[in-house]
């Protein structure tokens, strides 16, 4: 079926569905710009709510309005708990998001992992959709099942613009997830240079500790985030901070053979002692 969808072989798609009861994967249809297969599914199953949920992926406001005018549930969900607004946020479908919200979409609906549409928008740096969601009352500090806020996700993937939008609209810059990580911990772990700078300039606790006592600099040293290590140190990170096992960032840089970070830490240690 996937090959039939990719190749836009609509006769084969219909044959597989009718003769072999093989279902059309509705996520593949927009991925390969195959609206025809999508409509075949609708025609064969009359699954208006199922199709409606995935319809934002096509970025076609007329398609969305068709479903709404025919009684689709504005907050219909997939098995994973995603609503049409979740998908609109994931693909930064601006007009679709506006239509859904104006028709009563639950802006803070959560999927099975606790993600709101704003979590998805932050993960993929959907700038415009993030602004639309926030301006319409999205919970900016909503937490998923692991305690991540949208800002945690923005920091993890270095979504610079979305991070700025979230912070300017009141995101908790030092929010902690279930493991005690702040957004700055994540920025340090993945060497999100620009996001680290944004977080620090907006008051992030540079020496915040997670449940194991790691500061952002501990993580930067462990994973060899050279530039972020320099940013953290230049902004006052405690290079002698100890985790629950008594290890400093230098211990981790040495253990994991992060030579450049060892040099950075040692040079700053020397500077502090002068």
Automatic annotation (TrEMBL):
<dbReference type="Pfam" id="PF12796">
    <property type="entry name" value="Ank_2"/>
</dbReference>
<dbReference type="Pfam" id="PF11929">
    <property type="entry name" value="DUF3447"/>
</dbReference>
<feature type="repeat" description="ANK">
    <location>
        <begin position="146"/>
        <end position="178"/>
    </location>
</feature>
<feature type="repeat" description="ANK">
    <location>
        <begin position="212"/>
        <end position="244"/>
    </location>
</feature>
<feature type="domain" description="DUF3447">
    <location>
        <begin position="1"/>
        <end position="41"/>
    </location>
</feature>
<feature type="repeat" description="ANK">
    <location>
        <begin position="179"/>
        <end position="211"/>
    </location>
</feature>
<keyword id="KW-0040">ANK repeat</keyword>
<dbReference type="InterPro" id="IPR002110">
    <property type="entry name" value="Ankyrin_rpt"/>
</dbReference>
<dbReference type="InterPro" id="IPR036770">
    <property type="entry name" value="Ankyrin_rpt-contain_sf"/>
</dbReference>
<feature type="repeat" description="ANK">
    <location>
        <begin position="113"/>
        <end position="145"/>
    </location>
</feature>
<protein>
    <submittedName>
        <fullName>Ankyrin repeat protein, putative</fullName>
    </submittedName>
</protein>
<dbReference type="InterPro" id="IPR050745">
    <property type="entry name" value="Multifunctional_regulatory"/>
</dbReference>
<keyword id="KW-0677">Repeat</keyword>
<feature type="repeat" description="ANK">
    <location>
        <begin position="80"/>
        <end position="112"/>
    </location>
</feature>
<feature type="repeat" description="ANK">
    <location>
        <begin position="245"/>
        <end position="274"/>
    </location>
</feature>
<dbReference type="Pfam" id="PF00023">
    <property type="entry name" value="Ank"/>
</dbReference>
<dbReference type="InterPro" id="IPR020683">
    <property type="entry name" value="DUF3447"/>
</dbReference>
């Amino acid at each position: 079926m996937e090959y039939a969808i990719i190749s836009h072989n609509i006769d084969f798609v219909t044959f597989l569905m009718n003769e072999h009861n093989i279902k059309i994967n509705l996520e593949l249809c927009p991925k390969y710009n195959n609206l025809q297969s999508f409509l075949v599914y609708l025609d064969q199953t009359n699954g208006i709510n199922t199709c409606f949920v995935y319809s934002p992926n096509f970025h076609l406001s007329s398609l969305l309005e068709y479903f709404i005018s025919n009684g689709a549930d504005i907050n219909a969900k997939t098995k994973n708990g995603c609503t049409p607004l979740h998908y609109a946020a994931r693909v930064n479908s601006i007009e679709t998001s506006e239509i859904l919200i104006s028709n009563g979409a639950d802006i803070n609906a959560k999927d099975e992992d606790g993600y709101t549409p704003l979590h998805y928008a932050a993960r993929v740096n959907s700038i415009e959709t993030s602004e639309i969601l926030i301006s319409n009352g999205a919970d900016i500090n909503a937490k998923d099942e692991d305690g991540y806020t949208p800002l945690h996700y923005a920091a993890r993937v270095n979504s610079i613009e979305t991070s700025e939008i979230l912070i300017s609209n009141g995101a908790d810059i030092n929010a902690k997830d279930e493991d005690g990580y702040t957004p700055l911990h994540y920025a340090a772990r993945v060497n999100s240079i620009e996001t680290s700078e944004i977080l620090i300039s907006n008051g992030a606790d540079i020496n915040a500790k997670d449940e194991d006592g790691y500061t952002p600099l501990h993580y930067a040293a462990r994973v060899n985030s050279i530039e972020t290590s320099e940013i953290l140190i230049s902004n006052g990170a405690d290079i002698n901070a100890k985790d629950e096992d008594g290890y400093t960032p230098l211990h981790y840089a040495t253990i994991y053979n992060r030579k450049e970070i060892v040099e950075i830490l040692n040079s700053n240690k020397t500077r502090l002692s002068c």
